[in-house]
Amino acid sequence: MTGQRGDEPVRDGPGPYSGLFGDPPDTYSYPTATPKQVTVASVIAIGLGALCLLLAALTLTSAGDQISEVLTGSRGNAPVAVAATLVCAVAYLVPALYLRKRRPWARYVLIAVAAMGIAGGIMALPASLLGLAVHTTLLFLMLQRPTKLWFHHR
Fold first, then answer.
1. What is the pTM of this model?
2. Could you please report the per-residue DSSP string of 81-131?
3. Structural contact between residues 112 and 94, judged by C-beta atoms closer than 8 angstroms
4. Where does the pLDDT of residue 73 fall: very low under 50, low under 70, confident under 90, or very high at 90 and above?
5. 92 or 8, higher pLDDT
6. For this UniProt entry, which segments traverse the membrane (predicted)?
7. Could you tell me which residues are beta bridge partners of residue 119?
8. What does the pLDDT read at residue 23?
9. What is the pLDDT of residues 13-58, one digit of tens each?
10. DSSP label of 132
């Protein structure tokens, strides 16, 4: 509301630029909303962690010898296969849960896990095309500009 008090107009709200004391608004800050890249990456990582947990559970069934042979190279190594799949599950699930809480270390851990997944996928070609694609997508999402800006501008 404007009125006259002497020669100056009186305003009830902020200045003409909607900033404090009429300063222009800060257009260079990154929004605090979670970028879709971070959301998609966390969903992918949670899905991969859940698959690792499922594989650990299946290793404890009658299919344990076959799964153990695929994972370790020999039958009868079910405890080693279960331990490996549980470590794998932790490597995906823990960073995925902290990623949306804006913890930079979670981003770096997922970058490392995705890079190891890509390396493993390349060594197991052509049977690992799906895993290679998933890990490449995860790495791509973690390295995009909106993701970097969101983590660096806390």
1. 0.75
2. HHHHHHHHHHHHHHHHHHHTTT-HHHHHHHHHHHHHHHHHHHHTTTTTHHH
3. no
4. confident
5. 92
6. 38-60, 80-99, 108-141
7. none
8. 56
9. 555 555 555 555 555 555 578 899 999 999 999 999 999 999 999 9
10. H
Tell me the residue type at 150: W
Q: By the 8 A CB rule, do 107 and 45 touch?
A: no
By C-alpha distance, which of 101, 98, 132 is closest to 114?
A: 132
Query: Is residue 15 left, alpha or beta, with left meaning phi > 0 and alpha meaning psi from -120 to 50?
Result: beta
**What sign has the CA pseudo-torsion 77, 73, 111, 47?**
negative
What letter would DSSP give residue 28? S
Q: How many CB atoms are located within 10 Å of the residue 39 CB?
A: 14
Task: Give the type of residue at 11.
Answer: R
Query: Around Cβ 59, how many Cβ atoms within 10 Å?
Result: 25
What are 8's strand-pairing partners? 5
